Every structure is written in C-alpha cells, then in structure tokens.
Inverse folding.
C-alpha cells in the first residue's frame, strides 16, 4: 500500500503523461496502471489537469482555418482515391470564369451547407493554392504578409473592404488583396458568393 | 466518474469515425478541440499567425496518424494535445537549428537560452519548451528525482 503511494508521489506518472519516460519506465507505468486502480485514476487525473490547462488558455482560430483544413484533407482523400493532379491556371486580372470551367463543372464541386465558409481545393503546390470557395456571411478581417490572395467572382456578389476602401465585386470580377493590408469580405447577394480563390507566395 | 467514462467513449467514438474517414465528424472534432490546441501551440511559439499554420498542419497530421491513437495509453484529448505540441516543437527546433547555423548573438548569449529564461516553471520548460527531464534538471541544477516531484506539484497547481 505504502509503496503505491510512494510510487505515485515520486512523480513518475507525470513524467509518463508528459511523454518523458523511457520504454522500460513507460511499460512499468502501464503495468502498474493495469494492476492498481489508484495508479490508473491518478494518470487520468494528471491528463485532465493538463487538458483543463489547455482549455483554459483556448484561442479561437480565424474563420478560414477550419474550411482550409477540411479542404486539404478532402483533396488528399480525392487524390488517394485516384483523382489525377490538375493545374488550374494562374489567376490574373485577365482571367475569366471559363478558364476554370473544367473544375467548376465537376459534379463533386458542390456547396456543403454546414458552415458559412466552404472550400474545395482544385490545385495545391508549394507555390500556389487554388480553391473554389463559397461564402455565405462574411469573412472576418485578415492580413497577408507572405502571400497574395486573389479572387475571381463566379456567382453572387460581395464587397471586399481593404482598410476602409470598398470594392464591390460581381461575377467575372477579379481582385487581388494588397499585402499587409487588413481586409474583410462582406457578402452582398442573397445566394452564397462562389469564388475562385488563389494564394501565391509573395 | 460517469463524466470520465463519457469522455473516454466520446474520444474513442471520434477516433473511430476518423479512421472511417468521416470528414463531418472530423469537423466536429475541430470545433471541440481546435481552440485548446491553438492556445497551447501559441504558448509554445508565441506567434499567433504561425500558430494558426501549425494548427492547420496539426489537424492534417491527426487525420493522417489517427490509427496511432491507442485509447489504453492516453485520452483522445491528450493525444491531440501531444500532436499539437510535436508540430509546434518542429517549428521551434527549426529556429534553434537556424541559430546553430547563424551562430550566437553579439552579446554571446544564444537566442534559445533567452527563450528558456522566459519559461517560468519546470513544467513550462518541459511542456512548452519541449525539454527533457534530463535537460530541465541540468538547467535548474537539481536531481531528476527532485524535478519529478516539482513537476508533480506544478501540475497539481495548474
């Protein structure tokens, strides 16, 4: 009984939860946890404390992070299922919607209505990320320091406000966000605003 | 007690769904855990923009490594936190490597030692700076046995 107490008080369990035990020490902790309920309970308690610490210091990520993560994973799964890598053209002020019809017309490029921002990657290289993005509400302000973000409006309409200057955009319009400037996207159409979005390393 | 069971079951449910490549449930996992992960990442790298990129990479890593999760070894949340910490340490180690190439600063004090000085506790050094118990004990000039007890107390005080 006392030795279990001493075992727990030694701090070996914390060392295990923090991932700092060697293989033998780890195996011993696991053995002790299986044999003694108090050890298992203490391990769980230590984890909970660290988890609570993380929760207490939680931060909200920008609204575009989640759709981008889901888009990357969706794209990776599509490639694994056999989709061939394709290379959407570079977006410039001369671009037209038709330049992207190959991707826009695909049956799987549909808006999944669960979130207010939804994206499907169509091109993903080290230098350039291209996606079809649907926006239903607004995209909160962002600043880009290392990459150019370019928009081509496909459906719907929006205002891109760059440091107070409002740019009103409609289907066919192109816009590049200047570096280091705060911008907000506000949807002005009743339907979701569908865009081709491209990010290029600056 | 029931809370713990529910949490364990929920974690296993989430993990199984991700193994099954259920992206909708993965989105729920993001909603539930991303803020906590981002908080820890930010404490490690002290740069919110960089932290968001690391958060993104962490979630992709979680998706890719999900079969490594073992519910008998840790809770789901703890596993996620460790994934986030790992990704964040890759970034901080990159900077340490860059420093190693560039050499020490003018006043002869290495950058990473400065960062370490900002770490207020032994737990910070281990949990947020990614040091081993050996390294931490050596820096604090105490034995590993003493360090283990200090860390235990610090976690109790969290």
């Amino acid at each position: 009984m006392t030795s279990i107490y001493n075992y727990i008080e030694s701090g070996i369990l914390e060392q295990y939860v923090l991932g700092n035990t060697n293989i033998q020490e780890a195996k011993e902790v696991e053995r002790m946890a299986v044999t003694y309920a108090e050890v298992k309970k203490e391990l769980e308690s230590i984890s909970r404390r660290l988890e609570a610490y993380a929760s207490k210091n939680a931060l909200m990520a920008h609204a575009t992070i989640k759709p981008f993560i889901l888009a990357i994973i969706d794209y990776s799964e599509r490639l694994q299922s056999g989709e061939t890598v394709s290379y959407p053209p570079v977006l410039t002020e001369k671009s037209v919607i038709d330049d992207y019809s190959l991707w826009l017309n695909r049956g799987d490029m549909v808006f999944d209505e669960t979130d207010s921002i939804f994206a499907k990657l169509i091109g993903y290289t080290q230098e350039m990320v291209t996606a079809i993005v649907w926006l239903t509400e607004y995209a909160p302000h962002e600043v880009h320091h290392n990459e150019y973000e370019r928009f081509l409006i496909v459906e719907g309409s929006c205002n891109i406000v760059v440091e107070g200057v409002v740019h009103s955009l409609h289907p066919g319009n192109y816009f590049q966000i200047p570096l280091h400037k705060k911008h907000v996207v506000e949807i002005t159409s009743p339907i979701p605003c569908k865009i081709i979005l491209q990010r290029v390393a600056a | 007690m029931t809370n713990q069971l529910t949490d364990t079951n929920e974690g296993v449910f989430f993990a199984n769904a991700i193994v099954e490549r259920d992206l909708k449930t993965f989105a729920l996992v993001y909603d539930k855990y991303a803020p906590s992960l981002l908080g820890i990442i930010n404490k490690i790298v002290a740069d919110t923009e960089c932290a968001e990129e690391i958060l993104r990479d962490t979630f992709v890593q979680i998706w890719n490594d999900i079969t490594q999760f073992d519910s008998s070894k840790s809770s789901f949340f703890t596993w996620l936190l460790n994934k986030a910490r790992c990704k964040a340490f890759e970034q901080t180690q990159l900077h340490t490597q860059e420093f190693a190439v560039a050499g020490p600063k003018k006043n002869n004090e290495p950058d990473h030692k400065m960062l370490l000085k900002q770490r207020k506790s032994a737990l910070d050094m281990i949990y947020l700076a990614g040091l081993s118990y050996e390294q931490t004990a050596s820096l604090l000039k105490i034995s590993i046995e003493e360090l283990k007890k200090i860390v235990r107390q610090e976690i109790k005080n969290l």
Observations:
- Helices of chain A lie at 2-9, 12-17, 23-35, 37-56, 65-80, 101-104.
